[in-house]
Amino acid sequence: MVSTTIMANQSRVFAAVLPAAGREFSGNENEQGLQVPAVNRQSPGNRVREVQVTGTAEVCCLADRVSVRVSVGSSKESVNEVTNSVTRRLEYILQAVRQHGVSDKDTSVRKFLHRDADQYHMQAEAVVTFSDFDKMEQVCSVLLEKLDKSVCVGAPQFYHSAESLNQMRQRACVSAVENAQQKAYAVSQLLGQTLGPPLLVREEETREWRNEDEEDGGRCQDASGLPHLPRTATITASSRVSVSFGLRDRSRKKL
């Protein structure tokens, strides 16, 4: 389940009504805001008055995937003994994962066997990816309860799937356009105009960042010396767009 929060940035508005014959902007060109020039979109005899606005938005997205590394190991005097010892526990791990509805394609297994003097050592690990965090917690609890010290369950690693990142970026852009439209509508009402269709939509800037205080979730300790529980990673995306809308006089009769 993906939790998403949208936060719209407030921005100042700069307005300038320019003469119909030109498109030259006055003032600081770095200031993003509002312009209401009369421009020639089609022909010299058909001039269109337009309003140009910017809109910004931020979208926060929680991680929708978590991976857990589960490992087992053994040391025996024969290959068969060490292999059987590790294989039994590994099969129990995979069975517990399947019983909680995790597909085999979301589980990867690695084994390593080596010899040191008269001892054979075997290590095996399974990396399981969950989209349901509750199932992840249930599987970890079952493995620790049943296998006890013979299994090592690593700390959960939260991350974002490519699909959730794409959806977050789209929502940020769409929300920025919606904010620009609301701003343009308010300006058109102030000027006694009717807001027309969009003439140009351009995404000028996109940014993404991860919350810094969650980078080391699960490894930090509080004042009591106890480790914090792992926290879900959060990524924020922002978008700034520039949108031009046509303007029509309310008093103009429709042809």
Account of the 3D structure:
The protein is an alpha+beta fold and 255 residues long. It is 25% helix and 39% strand. The protein has helices at 79-99, 133-147, 162-190, and strands at 4-7, 38-43, 46-62, 65-76, 107-116, 119-130, 152-153, 157-159, 193-210, 234-249. Strands 1, 2, 3, 9 and 10 form a 5-stranded antiparallel beta sheet that branches. Strands 4, 5, 6, 7 and 8 form a 5-stranded antiparallel beta sheet that branches. A hairpin with a 2-residue loop joins β5 and β6 (119-130). α1 packs antiparallel against α2 (133-147). The longest helix has 29 residues, at 162-190. The chain is rod-shaped, with a radius of gyration of 30 Å. The protein starts with a strand and ends in a 6-residue tail after the last strand. 22% of the residues are buried. Residues 1-32 and 213-224 have low confidence and may be disordered.
Global Rg:
30 Å
Dominant shape: rod-shaped
Measure the end-to-end span: 52 Å
- List SSEs in N-to-C order: EEEEHEEHEEHEE
The main β sheet shows up as: 5 strands, antiparallel
Instruction: Please count the helical segments.
Output: 3
Portion in beta strands: 35-45%
Mean of residue pLDDT values: 81
Class from helix and strand fractions: alpha+beta
Helix content: 25-40%
Unreliable spans are: 1-32, 213-224
- Please give the number of β-strands: 10
